[in-house]
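Protocol step 4 of 5: obtain the predicted structure for the target chain.
Materials: sequence only (see below). No template structures provided, no constraints applied. The aim of this step is simply to have a reference model before the mutagenesis design in step 5. Sequence pasted as it appears in the construct record:
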Amino acid sequence: MPINTFPTPEDAEAAFYQAIAKRNLTALMSVWAEDEEIVCVHPTGAHLVGFAAIQASWRGILSGPRVEIRRQVIAQWQGMMMTVRHMLENLHAGKDVSGPIQATHIYLRGPHGWRLVCRHASPGSNPMLRPEQEHRVLH
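Step 4 output (structure tokens):
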């Protein structure tokens, strides 16, 4: 697998969603850390641990209908080596929209930039947000 360098967690996250929209498994998995301790929880409740299990799951998802995920970042906690981003996602497949989904991504900084180590997504409701709360960065 080619090594992509993601200088920021936002770069890694943008690559993640672009890969889903393009149904590109190689690009999607380049965002994930190559580690057997990475975790992905899908909205269906499927709990996956390790690179191979997560890759197999996304292979199945990406082989289905083309999906675009539109997201709104609700909050972000960023440190020197770890970032946690929480967002609302809406899935668009053609004219169909499903969601919202509450998703949390955890990124770690390593020798090849930022990598996704955990994605936890579950069905959720649209929280009541005040304009000043949208996309907060907490340090």
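Step 4 remarks: The first strand starts at residue 39 and ends at 41. DSSP finds three helices and seven strands in the chain.
Proceed to step 5.
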